[in-house]
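Case study.
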Amino acid sequence: MSSLPMTAVRTAVEAKEDLRAQIDAARLPKHIAIIMDGNGRWARQRFLPRIAGHRMGARTVHEVVETSARLGLQALSLYAFSAENWKRPKTEIDTLMELLREYIKKELEEIHRNNIRIQILGHYELLPAWVQEDIEQAIRVTGKNTGMVLNVALNYSARTELADAFQSILKSNQQNRNLEITEQMIAEHLYTKGLPDPDLLIRTSGEMRVSNFLLWQIAYAEIWVTDTYWPDFTARHLMQAILDFQKRERRYGGLGRGGV
Ligand code: FPP
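After joint prediction, the assembly is written out as follows.
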């Protein structure tokens, strides 16, 4: 091997370490939510079938999960399949399910070793039975882990999540005719109950939309959008987003430092 590629590899590793060293561990976002977008466009750019983009996207998931856990995030939420994604061709849906299964089979051991707990956001009981079995195994195996929570949103819709929360509140308060629904009650009936709200929402591929993802929970999230397509997103982009987040001043509707 010539010395040039080795130098390039070293430079990339150094650049990553350099970014990592700049991150203030005391002010990490507790929870990052990611809308993984652009797999199809990544593939089209290369005259490849859309599914090649999803396959590369699954590799990115590996890198992002590993980096997030290593950095010490409390939670990472990934939008893998929305309730609206059923409108896609059956072959694409089937391959996405197959990729999910492959991901679990390949990564479960390492995820468990890294003390990560897998949770699913969304009605995954409507997914094909064969993939549900793998999902349930992943939930069971990692259920007692105490490290980062990895939320995978599958057949997910934030509006359905809110409707489910209201339904669940009504069900558990059937005797109370004067029930007053509070914000705290709603938060406690969401799929993300017990977790801090995302403080950083990342979207790849340059689209400026929130696409029915965690609508209640992202009320005060900082939003970071990159033009990079999801298959090209790396640990470096993730760290760049975190560094940007750390430069911002979060005001929650109040005044900033210096009263302005
Ligand atoms: C959006 O790109 C991406 C998806 C709908 C699927 C995301 C799936 C993966 C990253 C792979 C499998 C997931 C896991 C958790 C292993 P798009 O197809 O909408 O892209 P486009 O807007 O360019 O067409």
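Observations recorded in class. The two ends are 57 Å apart (CA to CA). Strands lie at 31-35, 75-82, 117-121, 149-156, 200-203, 222-225. We will return to this complex in the next lecture.
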